[in-house]
Amino acid sequence: MELLSKFNSPFLYMICGGIICFVAVICIVFAVRAYRMGKEMGIDTAKMKRVITASATFAVLPSVGILLGVIALSGSLGTPWPWLRLSVIGALHYETQVAEAASEAVGIGGLSIANMTPEAFTTIALLMSFCIMWGMVLVIFNGKAYCTRLQTPAPAKKKDGKEKKLNLSGFGDTAMTAMFIGLVSAYIASYIGTIISGEGKLSFGGSWLSLAVAVVAAMAMGIFIAVKEKAKADWVDSFSVAGSMLIAMTAAIFLGRLI
S-S: 220 plus which of 3, 21, 174, 247, CB 3.0-4.6 Å? Predict the structure, then answer.
C-alpha cells in the first residue's frame, strides 16, 4: 500500500492534472473557434446549439466506460496515471490490454498492487505511452495527404462496361476488426487452455469466471448490435461498449458470489 500511495502522490496529480487541463483548454479554444466559424458560414445558431446539446448528452454514457477503466486500473497503477492515459489520447480497450500485457512481460503476473514494483510501473507506463504516440507523430507527415484522400471521391473502375466505385476507406476498419478479433481470441484461448491444462479451478473462479464473463459481455454486445440494426438506431453505438462493460462487471460480481 505504501507503493500505491506514491502512485497517488500530489506530485503525480500535479503533473497529470496539468496536462489534462492544458488539453481541456485546447478543446475549449477549438470549440469556440468552430462555433464562430459556423456563424461566419451562415449556419443557423439554433442548429449549432442543438448539435452541442446532443453531443454533450451522447458523450455522458460512453464516458462511464472510461471512468470504469480508470477505476479498474487505479487499484494497481494509482489514479493519476490511468486518469491521464484515458483522458488525452488513450482508449479504454487499448490501455487495459497493454497494461495487462506489460505486467505479464515484466513477470509480476498481472495487474496487482501486491506484486507491483517501481520498475514494473515504469515499464508499464512507458509501454502504454510509447505504443500509442505514433498517431500524433505520423499525422505530421501524412495528415494532409490523408485529409485530401478523404475529400477526394473514390475513382471508378470500369467492369463489363459499367463503372464500379472503389471503396478506399474500408481497409482501416477491416484491419482494426481483425486486430481485436485476434486479441479477444488470444484471451479466450488462454482461459480455455488454463482450464484444460488443469490449472483452472473447477468452479466459477479463476479462468472459469473470466470465460463466463467474456461470454456475458459478448452476448450483451450482440444485443446492442441487434437493437441497432433492427431499430435503425445508430446512436446505440455510443453506448454499446460502456453498456457491455457494466453488464459484464455486474455478471462478474454475481458469478463470483457463487463460488
Answer: 247
